[in-house]
Amino acid sequence: MANGNVPSYLTTATPNPLGNRVPWFKSTAQSYAGIFFWIAFFDQLGGTMGGPGALGMVNLGTALLALFCAGGLSVLLFYLVPGLLGMKTGLPLYIVGTSTFGTRGGYFLPGIFMGLLQIGWYSVATFFAADLVLKGLGMKEHAVSLYGPGGGEFDVVFVVTAVIWGYLFAFLGAKGIAYVARVATFFPLAILAMLIIGAISAVGTVGDYQPVEDAELPGFLMVLQPGSLLVIQMVLGFFATAGAVGADFCMNNRTKKDVWLGGIVGIWGATVVAGGLALITVAGAAGADPSLKNFSYSAALPVVNESLGNWMLLLFAVGSAAPACFCSFIIGNSLSTMLGSEKTRIPLTLGGATIGIILAALGVAGNLGPFFALIGASFGPVVGAMIADYLLSGGKWAGPRAGISIPGYTAWLLGFGVGILNHPWIGVLPGWDIGTVYSLVVGFGVYYMLAKAGLEPETVELPNLSMAAAKPDDTAAVSELA
Question: Which member of 84, 295, 317, 334 lies 3.0 to 4.6 Å from 115 by CB, making a disulfide possible if both were Cys?
Answer without folding.
Answer: 334
